[in-house]
Specification:
The complex is a heterodimer of chains A (238) and B (289). Chain A has 238 residues and is an alpha/beta fold. In chain A, 34% of the residues lie in helices and 26% in strands. In chain A, the strands form 2 sheets. Chain A has a 6-stranded mixed beta sheet with strand order 6-7-8-3-9-10, with helices on both faces. Chain A has a 4-stranded antiparallel beta sheet with strand order 2-1-4-5, with helices on one face. In chain A, strand 9 and strand 10 form a beta hairpin. Chain A starts with 6 loop residues before the first strand and ends with a helix. In chain B, strand 1 and strand 2 form a beta hairpin. Chain B has 11 helices and 2 strands; from the N terminus they run ααααββααααααα. Chain B has 2 domains: 179 residues, no CATH class; 71 residues. Classes of the chains: A alpha/beta (238), B mainly alpha (289).
Chain lengths: 238, 289
């Protein structure tokens, strides 16, 4: 296959009704790499992730997953191609127990491997093992976020899309989540992270995109980004 | 009132309730998971009964008729979901009611074309024709015990599948968040088709089982549909546990009403519904309570 990237977006335009959200979005995600999407609220970061997942359909441009045009793929096809999604709103199944939330979509990786089994997820998040038989909606915000990450990892993905996963969490829980993200990255799972913690993103991500009104205004690594003081101030409030 | 007679009426009420549960559970799952109000659900009960009539004539056995009838009703469910119900998922309830009411008219017309307007009797299997003696003068038909046992067995299987299998988890997850279950790699379209087909098959099996104790007649689907909706409303829309308790309550209310309050028998089930809704407006296990 000529294209080594797992995910590419080329000149992608996505709308919500009449609202034009992504305006020529371009993105490349290499295997085992970590990409951050930065920008103020409402600039199109979450829409980019939803467009990759097939939840929002692009009207123009091309989304490619593992070399295949995925513009018309349903979300379950995207997920089966090895893309896992951790949504901003957590979206725990309240009528399932913690164990059931983890097992509901568990499957082997595209290559047939089972790197992330239930035991390993519980080792990663020991607090969940104490809550296995509780209903999903009886968890704290931090525990729910651990559950959504665990649920996504149980699909043994090649790519993890993390949308504002530390938003609204206590500092100690945030640290726990960040250390898990680092562990996931070390494992070789490619990640796309949307978060407001610029410092952490600069430490973890290999490449950064700054998005303004649905377009990429900066693309580069942490050293290049830190040199862009005007951009950091104007578009990221740093 | 003799206690033995009361006992027999209680058995009748439980048997009717368990039969109602088979029908109402399909109705409740389809609404709870897919958000579709299916007025045509009673038609599948009628089709099941007519299939029992035709297939038992062809094969000479109600057992074979049921075995053949299950895949036929499931296929019918797949067909109806793929060609009609699929257009209703993002539409409001009025449009769902209109389309599924149209399906009732179509199925009734097909029934007239295929079977005509005469009522039909379906013979019980010879092995189930006897009665258990309960006293010197009273007995209880073996077939009614068989009917209750099959309905109870299917209810237990349904509970185990919903509660303890991956498929059941996905149905429950799909009922609470369709987008997320799809984003986790589950083909919700196929899941919906399967759920609908199972719901249709449950109604069909109920019709097949009821055929020997009731006459098979045109319009039998509408009558059972109304009572099934009462069960679903009492239990709480989307709740299988609620449908089970609601079905038993309605089965007993209907039978006791006919025996103890014959003048008010026709409103007994609605009285129970009104009482439950006064105390719990979302039903016994509805999400709003």
């Amino acid at each position: 296959m000529s294209n080594p990237d797992i995910i590419t977006l080329k000149d992608v335009h996505t709308y919500y009704g009449a609202s034009h959200v992504l305006r020529g979005m371009n993105l490349r995600l290499a295997p085992r790499s970590c990409l951050s999407l930065m920008g103020r609220n409402g600039m199109g970061k979450s829409t980019t992730i939803k467009t990759i997942m097939g939840i929002a359909k692009p009207r123009h441009g091309t989304v490619t997953i593992k070399g295949y045009n995925s513009n018309r793929w349903e979300p379950y096809v995207v997920a089966k191609a090895g893309i896992a999604y951790v949504p901003e709103e957590r979206e725990i199944f309240p009528n399932l127990t913690v164990r059931e939330n983890l097992l509901v979509a568990a499957r082997l990786s595209v290559e047939g491997q089972d790197n992330w089994c239930l035991e390993r997820i519980l080792d990663l998040f020991p607090r969940l093992s104490e809550r296995l038989n509780q209903w999903g909606n009886n968890l704290s915000g931090g525990e729910q976020q651990m559950l959504t990450i665990g649920r996504a990892l149980m699909t043994n993905p090649d790519v993890l899309l993390l949308d504002e996963v530390t938003e609204g969490l206590a500092p100690i829980v945030r640290e726990e989540i960040w250390s898990v993200i680092e562990a996931v990255k070390r494992e070789g799972i490619a990640t796309v992270i949307v978060d407001k913690n610029i410092g952490k993103l600069m430490m973890i991500a290999d490449h950064h995109l700054v998005i303004v009104r649905g377009e990429v205004v900066f693309s580069g690594d942490s050293i290049e980004l830190s040199a862009q003081t005007e951009l950091l101030h104007q578009h990221l409030g740093v | 009132m003799d206690w033995l007679l009361f006992f027999i009426q209680t058995l009748n009420g439980i048997q009717y309730g368990l039969l109602l549960f088979l029908i109402a559970s399909g109705l409740s799952i389809v609404f709870g998971v897919m958000g579709v109000i299916n007025l045509a659900h009673g038609s599948f009960y009628m089709i099941g009964a007519y299939l029992a009539f035709t297939l038992s004539e062809l094969t000479g056995s109600l057992f074979y008729a049921i075995l053949l009838g299950i895949p036929i009703t499931m296929l019918l469910g797949f067909f109806v979901e793929r060609f009609f119900i699929v257009h209703l998922y993002h539409r409001d309830h009025l449009q769902q009611v209109l389309l599924t009411f149209g399906l009732i008219l179509i199925f009734n017309e097909l029934q007239q074309i295929l079977w005509g307007g005469d009522p039909h009797a379906v013979p019980m299997p010879a092995v189930l024709t006897g009665s258990f003696p309960l006293s010197d003068t009273l007995s209880y038909p073996v077939y009614r015990f068989f009917l209750s046992a099959v309905c109870l067995g299917m209810s237990i299987v349904m509970y185990l599948v919903l509660k303890h299998t991956r498929f059941g988890m996905r149905i429950r997850a799909g009922a609470s968040n369709r987008t997320m279950i799809e984003a986790l790699g589950i083909n919700i379209r196929f899941l919906y088709s399967l759920v609908f087909a199972i719901g249709v098959a449950l109604a069909g099996v109920a019709g097949m089982l009821a055929a020997p104790v009731e006459t098979v007649y045109p319009g039998m689907g509408e009558q059972i549909l109304i009572v099934s909706f009462v069960v679903v409303v009492i239990g709480g829309i989307g709740s299988i546990r609620g449908a089970f308790i609601g079905a038993l309550a309605i089965g007993l209310a209907d039978v006791y009403g006919q025996v103890f309050l014959p003048d008010l028998a026709s409103v007994a089930v609605y009285g129970v519904m009104a009482g439950v809704l006064l105390l719990r407006p979302s039903g016994l296990f509805g999400r709003g309570t």
